[in-house]
Design brief:
6-stranded antiparallel sheet; 16% helix; 14 strands; signal; globular; Jelly Rolls; 4 helices; PEP-CTERM sorting domain-containing protein; binds calcium ion
Length: 287
């Protein structure tokens, strides 16, 4: 009996040791703190705004962007530091957040004016997630989230749909990826079924970023080529939320989480494995 208690303690200790090598939190914000926008740089020219919403959130409150101007856009930026200090070769940077687009209106011909979240490394766009619309899809005009690098080429065209539209394979949409058709000239007529969860993973030194979009019960995977960099050299990662100049939109961001996932250490795994073997042997001997 004493032995099984000891065994339980040891197994618990090993489990703790194995999980303690998990994520190092760098930044998180559910916008419920006393100063939820501390450190954020907000730009909200006439007709657009970015600030805390106490009427929408997952749960309340959230960061809300409202843009009713067809010439201006709102922007909220946060410079995330501490990634380089927390990282070493092989580690993975994980960025996650929830996104809810309540309304969106944009001309089909507009090619650079969508609501989007941009991760920037230094002065360069690292990866962009946006919400846009485009003709030429199986169901005609389609709404979708897309992934690309730079905001300059944000709307996928009918020639690069497979590369950029999330959950589109060139002829059909994955479950949960299409947002259907609507009259894009009127804002306020597009509800995307609530909060959609995004997660982006980038392993130091890789040239691809991997993401998932979870909408209702559907998980849609995507990836995009990025300019290779190391997390050890990433002094600051800018988390940029913005609406589009020529478009109108109202959307929310919530539950931002940025963390570094250490590469599993071979020696640590070996140590855990060895302890488990010793425990099993001990159990046999004592029986
Ligand atoms: Ca919240
Ligand atoms: Ca605008």
């Amino acid at each position: 009996m004493k032995y099984s208690v000891l065994q339980s303690l040891l197994v618990g200790g090993i489990a703790l040791a194995a999980t303690s090598a998990s994520a190092v939190d760098i930044y998180s914000n559910d916008f419920s703190g006393a100063s939820p926008l501390a450190g954020w740089d907000i730009s909200q020219p006439t007709g657009s705004s970015a600030g805390i919403s106490n009427s929408e959130g997952n749960p309340l409150p959230s960061l809300d962007v409202s843009d009713t101007s067809t010439s201006a856009f709102a922007e909220a930026d946060y410079m995330v530091s501490g990634i380089s200090a927390a990282s070493s070769s092989g580690d993975t940077l994980r960025t996650s957040f929830d996104w809810n687009i309540n309304s969106f209106a944009c001309s089909l011909s507009n090619t650079a004016a969508n609501p989007r979240v941009v991760l920037r490394n230094g002065d360069s766009d690292f990866v962009t997630l946006g919400f846009g619309r485009r003709g030429g899809y199986p169901q005609g005009v389609a709404l979708f989230f897309y992934v690309t690098e730079s905001a300059g080429t944000v709307i996928p065209t009918s020639s690069d749909t497979t590369a950029a539209a999330i959950g589109y394979n060139g002829s059909s949409w994955d479950a949960g990826a299409s947002f259907g058709q609507y009259d894009g000239t009127t804002p306020g007529n597009n509800n995307t079924d609530g909060w959609i969860h995004f997660e982006l993973n980038y392993t130091s030194g890789d040239d691809t970023i991997y993401g998932t979009m979870v909408r209702n019960d559907n998980t849609i995977s995507f990836s995009w080529s990025v300019t290779s960099t190391t997390l050890e050299s990433m002094d600051e990662l800018e988390f940029r939320v913005m609406s589009g100049s020529a478009s109108e939109a109202e959307f929310g961001i919530d539950n931002i989480g940025i963390s570094v996932i250490p590469e599993p250490s071979q020696s640590a795994l070996g140590l855990v494995g060895g302890l488990v073997v010793l425990l099993c042997l001990g159990r046999r001997v004592r029986r």
